[in-house]
Amino acid sequence: MHSAEAKKESRGAHARKDFARRDDENWMKHTLGYWENEKVRLDYRPVHMNTLDDEIQTLPPKARVY
Predict the structure, then answer these.
(1) What is the pTM assigned to this prediction?
(2) Membrane-crossing residues (predicted)?
(3) For residue 13, what is the DSSP state?
(4) CA atoms of 4 and 42, how far apart (whole Å)
(5) How confident is the model at residue 20 (pLDDT cuts 50, 70, 90)?
């Protein structure tokens, strides 16, 4: 719940009426949650955009259209 509230965008199944668009510039990252001292602490790590070998093509990110 803490990470969903912190994320100011909509992406895939994470949809917010107050932030209806995807925001790759600010939110193309993984959210990590930690329980410390009776509180949730959020941290982030980058998304790796490349595949592990040259056999599989890297696909650029794009918004899903339903």
Answers:
(1) 0.76
(2) none
(3) T
(4) 11
(5) very high
